Amino acid sequence: MFLPSNGAVVDAPHLQPPSPLPAAMDPRQASVAAEVLDARYAVPIHYETEQPDKIAGYVEVSDPEHDFRSHAGRRAHVLAVGEWLDLAT
Length: 89
What we know:
Elements: E1 2-4, E2 9-10, H1 27-36, E3 43-45, E4 58-59, H2 64-72
Parallel strand pairs: 1-3
Antiparallel strand pairs: 2-4
Helix pairs in contact: 1-2
């Protein structure tokens, strides 16, 4: 299961008024979704630890990868860009 897990809050000039809710699940919510749906593998997506060209007003949780790993436990499989997940294992 691939889960958006950055908990981003968006306050963009063209989206007014800003939403009081995150635009994506945060790491804890994503891990709960994986558990509820009994996912064998849970892969966090839509987060970047370094974003030099990040849009102003787009704020993610501080360490989504670490938080996802700690909440998702054995289901968590954090992949590097271009890395494959072998579903046969």
